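Hi V.,

You were right to ask for the full record rather than a summary. Here it is.
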Amino acid sequence: MAFRSQIGRRLTAAACLAGLLSGPVSAADEIRFLTPGASAELQAALRAASPLLAAQREDRSDAQDLFAAARAEYSALLAALYARAFYSPVITVSVDGREAANIAPLDAPGTIRQITVTVEPGPDFAFSQTRIAPLAGGTVLPADFAIGKPAATGVIRDAARAAVEGWRNLGHAKAAVGSQDLVVDHAARTLAASLEMQPGPKLRFGTFSIQGQERMREGRIRAIAGFPEGKVFDPAALRRSADRLRRTGVFRSVSLAEAENPGPDGTLDVSTTLVEDLPRRFGAGGEISTLDGLDVTAFWMHRNLFGGAERLRFDLAVENIGSSSNGTDYMLGATLERPATFTPDTLLGIGVTAQRLDEENQTIDLATLGITATQFVSDRLTLRGGLQVRGQRVTDLTADYTFYNLALPLGATYDGRNDKFSATKGYFIAAELTPFLGWNGTGSGGRLTLDGRAYRGFGAERPVVLAGRVQVGSVFGPGLEDTPRDYLFYSGGAGTVRGHPFQSLGVYVISPDQLTGGTRFVALSGEIRAPVTERIGVVGFYDVGSVGVTDFFDDPQGGWQAGAGIGIRYATGFGPIRVDIATPIQGSAGQNANGSVQLYVGIGQSF
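Predicted structure:
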């Protein structure tokens, strides 16, 4: 190779001194970057690693900067080649015809006209030996760390990291890689890798020290973190403690650090450094459609009310403003939540809401008082249970009604998406079963809902995504007339079938003139999301929904509706801005709309 490894760390200082002594400087007229024999992927990796091309992109044209970048070119490119299993490259960096490595720092040129970088990668190398010992039971090494596979240094690092984590998972907190023997055979084009592990002793958690808190009480921090003092060391337990503190929303930053050395009693102390965020926060959002009008939501929250991460939140929603089919709906709610109640992973909340739903031919005034416990089982799985007292007054074309019931909502959510705001793979499932007991003429029974979503991306950098959603709902037990009206199901609108008015599909059971929701509901949605640029994407979608009383798919008292359309997404730091254009395809609401086109604007994907 045409570089000299003995060039030391004094290069930068010497180059700076040379620049001061060299007088006027000028930029290079041209930087040529040649990679004969390299694949397109390797060419891209080498260009991304090049300090000279980085200087060119940043418009750094001083000769002193360019000379320092030229000297750094060898090690940067060599690291990129080693990372891809190329161990016999030839790298030359010519500065006006002179090899950069052969130019003494004090002889740095004051003027540079042309720099030519040539990288001949040579053949790639394969593993001839892959040995790491001893390994902890259950350790899974990377599949690419195997004889015959490309001997990339990144694979060796990944294998070493997996071996260390394997021992740490068994309580050996200070496990490390000991001796490393990497032998390159240029004739055979192979690399033999042999690593000796040093597991160290099995340790237990020691003391948990806290610093940085201002308003939070230390006792509550310990209760929320749930640090397992005295238990066998487990990195997953550390992550859970940090996640619990972050989940409160009180802290801008949570950092946990293990002590450098274990104690003589076989314990390992852990310290946490916290940075508290501002206690108060407010926000607002909105969505608009040509049929359903404008929806506006807002909230105000105090996330550390009494110094124990108690969260007080007020929510306001005004929906269907200017709707062509319904009146304006209002909702006002307040909740008080306390984390680490009963267990470190239990959130207890008390809430009250008041709503008015002004629909086309009925008005519902609803009040709810309830208590809810949320259990965070894992990063993905959440369970919920609660108790609610509910009352509502309904005025429609036939009469006035009142409904009172006691409800026991039980729910579970599993979020396996890779991105909550714009998923490209994974799935999401939310299910809720709500047994309810009615009195004063209100029926008793249960309500079941299911919301399932799945995502599959095709492509690496900007994948085309197929997204699907299924929604199912059912009320069982009471007759429709005896069921609280807000428990019934409708179809139509941005959340079910786009192109149709909000809640336009229901049933006529109470009266031929009175539309209400049904006790059976199913909706299916499919989208194809394709990127156009890094920020802009297009979407094609098709939605279909059905409402009935006795059957999901073929109910004589219900019906079907469908809609389809296209949309545009613009990616932002807080989720994509969504613009959808939809038209009805099937259903009485579609016929009434005469095939008109509807526009929806909001924030975030439709699902």
